[in-house]
Structures are given as structure tokens and as C-alpha cells.
Amino acid sequence: MVKKLWMVALFLMVSTTSSLAQTVVNTTTDSKSDVKTEGRTIVISPPPSAISPSIGSSSSDLCTTGVSGAVQTQILGVSTGEMVRDENCERLKISKTLYDMGMKVAAVSVLCQDRRVYDAMEMAGTPWPFLGKIGEQAADEWKVNPNKIPSPVVLETKSDVQKRNATIGATVGGLALLLLLL
Description:
By secondary structure, this protein is mainly alpha-helical.
């Protein structure tokens, strides 16, 4: 019997606690906003329009490269472009074509016009052709005619490149300032 009383008391406590735990909140929100926006755009001059010429070389069989540039101020615009010829590329293509046609001596002769190839063949102990002569006969002719040996290649140093870039930068900067003053 005591057990039943405890059970009834426990049931009453749980049921009254959960019913008292419920909370009801009523809120009312009233909001109002007015937004007014105005805008105005004034174009004083058209945008700059100096356009560099397009110099494309989509084929990899060309030994040229396109270089172009443009500068524009509000008053004056200048654009230019040109093709730069790669002589070493041309030499390699000519040599390969001659070799493919079976003219091996002529192909080597074309490559020997580059002093680097000339020096490499000399260091390898392989004489380069001279007016149709090959082997030791060609080496003897080169010794007799040293004025026909290609001139040495002077490689650019880092300071040479920096000086050249500084000169170009100063020139371009001066031109830009001049154009801005116009």
C-alpha cells in the first residue's frame, strides 16, 4: 500500500512539474522604413583607346616573334608593333632542311656559322667544312684563313641587362610624363 502511495505521489509530482514548466510569450513587433536613393553619372570624356596591333604567330614554324605596345592619355594615344626575327631559329631550320635533303656537309656548314657550334666542333676534334673540303684539309684551310672564323659570342652579364632595363625604364618614364603634360 505504501508502495502504491509512493507511485501516486511520484506521478502527481511529474505531471504537475511538466505542466508548470510551460511558458507562453506573446510579442508584437511593428517596424516601418522608408529608403530614398538618388544617383547621377557624368562622363566627361570617352575612355582611352590606344590599341596595340596584334601580331600573332600561331604557327610554330615561324622564326619571328611579335612585340607590341600602346600608351594612352586623355588627349594623345600612341601604339606600335613589329616583328623580331630569330636568326638562330632560321639557322636551325635551314640546317635541318639541308640535312633532310641528304646534304650533311652543307647542314654542318650552316651550323658552323654560329661561333658556339664552331668552338664545340673544335673542342671535339672534328674539323668543320671549308669551301667543300672536309677533315684535315678543311682544318688546314681554317688555319690559313683565320679571318673567316665566326666572331666570338659575347654573352650578356646581369649588369648589362640591368643597365639596358634601366635605360628603357627611364625612357618610357620620361615619355609617360611628357604625355601626361599634354
